Amino acid sequence: MMNSMTQLIRSAFGEDDVVLPPVVARRRKRLWELPSRMHCPVIGTCLPVSQLRKLARRAGVYQREMSDFTLHSTMVGYCDTRSALTEGIQKYLDKRYAAAVASLGRERGEPAILAAWQQALLEGDDIAGVLWAAWTHPDLDEQASNQIYGDIHMLSHQVGASVRADLRQLERIKQDNMRLRAEHEALRHGLDEAQRQKERAVAGLSQQVADAEQRAALLARREVELADALRRAGDYETLFRRAEAMAQRIESLEERNAGHAQRARNLEIALADAEADRAALSLALETALGIADADGCAYPDGRGDCGSACPAEARLLGRCVLCIGGKTNLVECYRRLVETRGGRFLHHDGGQEDNLHRIDVAVASADAVICQAGCVSHTAYYRLKESCKELGKPGVFLKSPGMGSFARGLAALSGDAANADSAIRLVD
Hints:
The chain is mainly alpha-helical. The chain has helices spanning 2-13, 36-46, 49-59, 68-78, 84-96, 98-105, 110-123, 127-135, 142-233, 236-289, 331-340, 359-365, 378-391, 403-413, and strands at 320-324, 344-348, 368-372, 395-398, 424-427. Helix 13 links the parallel strand 3 (368-372) and strand 4.
């Protein structure tokens, strides 16, 4: 075909020796054929970072610790020479922007290419594709390439400023969003609380309705009962007489109640008098037994020795006496008797409230033991007996919890056998 075209030209001009310039095939530029300054915009604008990372990993130049900037700079440096990496980038860009390359490839001349570029800048659509198609177009010279380079350079600044403005706007939007979320959360809590109040109010109203219905049913039953009662009474006169009789009965009961109240007051007075008599009797008993406070004792604390004739019989000489059991209301009397005789007093209730296992500890802390055998359990009795034997503590076991029995037991511990009787068992 080329030969036929040559012949046609030569015949048209009437010259057989016309020399035609050689035909140069139109070919798109390759990445490594572009000026070095264009590699940065191409890599940064036309190639996504994720795909750039894949290509770098495939070529063996990617390292895990590489930042996006380091990866970008490394890949830009490889674009000056033809290699498997740059051929891979060329192939990817041609495939990714095939539509833009095909569309711009139909244009001829720099004005058309620059017009397409300006249209892409104006519309903001596929700037990366038009950039790649324009710079690799065979009709684009250096001047037009520089013009596009200046446009993309300024666009990057504008995009950066826009991004910063967008970031600031995004931060404000985030703050507004947080505020709106807080308001929404508060409104939601308020709504939930209102819902709960509504539910409580509904429940309360439902309960009131149920109570009202129950009261209505009760009133209905009472109305029926009242009607039956009126029918059974016969007439209002009978009901009146029954009411009068009921009033009289109530009056009589009130009088009886007043009498009972007076009797209760009299009993309280008698009880107080009996308590006073009991205290007087107790004091008389103490005096008769020789355990009352002795006036004029030379050693009221029991530390001296004023002889067997001393009414206080202060013969314990500071010894500690442990009392097991006994009557609760006489414990203080037991204590007074021991302290009057110059001793120290300890008490254990025999396991009623105090721990039964503390008997051994109490026996170890005492010098002698008095057990009210009739007021303790068999377990406590035998435990105390064994403990006295093991620790070598003298013990007296009483059949009666009275003050007289306790005084005789204390006399036995003091060595006064004359005041002891058959009701006392001494454990050595």
